[in-house]
Amino acid sequence: MKKILSFLLSFIFCMLFSERAFSEFLFSPTIVVIDAPAGMGATSVEISNPMNKPVRLQLSLGEWDMDKDGRIIATEKEQEQITQYIKITPMQFTLLPDQKRKVRIACSLPFDVENKEYKLFLKMLEISADRKEFSSNNKQYRMGLNVNKEMQVGTYIRKGPESSLYANIKFKDFEVKKNKDDSGKLKFSYNFKYENEGNIHKRKKVGARFFDAQGNVFWETKELGSFIVVPTPKDSSIKYGNTVYFPDEEKFSKASEIQFVFIDKSVRESDSVEKLDDNIFSERIKIVSTNE
């Protein structure tokens, strides 16, 4: 039994599939990966409080997947969830202003659990001990914990030998536009779809080559964005897009075509090595000007 998390769809999409920072708490790394070839593995994450007040956090894990239409769904039956084999230490604690805390996440998966990458989200709730009274059926009740803020962080557990874990990624349906925003600044907006028929996610940086009307390359970059390519159900795809601004408007106003390059990043946030030999290049895409 599964249910659509419609009320959290856009929020979880940003947290799981992109690499954006969360303003209330600082979390490192922003993506958690646990290698557990034989079912056992562990890692530590660091949570810090940049605010000028103490915060009390409560941590838990949930498992998510996608349906055939690429929508985020969550496993509802507890006995089907892999989270029962994962332990978070500590699960609840208080952080003073500017204080940091290490949290350990350890898994011990049964031998007969399928070899694949399990997609989870680490949920952090900021809670308070304020006592709120309310009445029901002429009885008075007290509620001891209140949830103030909530965030999710993409968490992945990889079980099985490395040879059984792979990504099979295809990009398609590219669209690129250039126009000026309300303040008159030149901007480029792009989007595309991807399919990943493998069983693990990949982190990708978006780069590009820009061509003028004569077909000459006048600029290259590796910094047009970054995102997470998660496995997708068969015959479904996920859409990704971004908008970028360039300081030299005169230079980029002549851009006629673009060729995207997708740079394969390490799953380890501390590892900045880019595997240039694994890059995936698109065909040259025409840039459409929408306000000429």
Please explain how this structure is put together.
The structure is a single chain. It contains 2 helices and 21 strands. With 292 residues, the chain is mostly beta strands. It starts with a strand and ends with a strand. The model is unreliable at 1-23, 141-145 and 267-277 (pLDDT under 50). Helix content is 4%, strand content 57%. The chain has helices at 9-17, 249-252; strands at 2-4, 26-28, 32-36, 40-48, 55-66, 72-75, 86-89, 92-95, 100-108, 117-128, 132-136, 139-143, 146-159, 169-180, 186-196, 202-211, 217-229, 238-245, 257-265, 274-286, 288-289. It has 2 domains: 2-163, Immunoglobulin-like, CATH 2.60.40; 169-289, Immunoglobulin-like, CATH 2.60.40. The strands form 5 sheets. Strands 1, 3, 5, 6, 8, 10 and 13 form a 7-stranded mixed sheet that branches. The protein has a 4-stranded antiparallel sheet with strand order 2-4-9-7, with no helix packed on it. Strands 18-15-14-21 form a 4-stranded mixed sheet, with no helix packed on it.
Pick out its properties.
292 residues, mainly beta, Immunoglobulin-like, 2 domains, seven-stranded mixed β-sheet, four-stranded antiparallel β-sheet, 2 helices, 4% helix, 57% strand, globular, disordered N terminus
**Strand content range:** over 45%
**Biggest beta sheet summary:** 7 strands, mixed
The structural class is mainly beta
The count of strands amounts to 21
Percent of residues in helical segments?
Answer: under 10%
Distance from N terminus to C terminus (CA atoms, Å) equals: 51 Å
Radius of gyration: 22 Å
- The name of the CATH topology of the largest domain is Immunoglobulin-like
CATH architecture of the largest domain: Sandwich
Q: Poorly predicted ranges (pLDDT <50, ≥5 residues)?
A: 1-23, 141-145, 267-277
Order of helices and strands: EHEEEEEEEEEEEEEEEEEHEEE
Number of domains: 2
Number of helices: 2
Approximate shape:
globular
CATH superfamily of the largest domain: Immunoglobulins
Average pLDDT number: 79
Give the CATH class of the largest domain: Mainly Beta
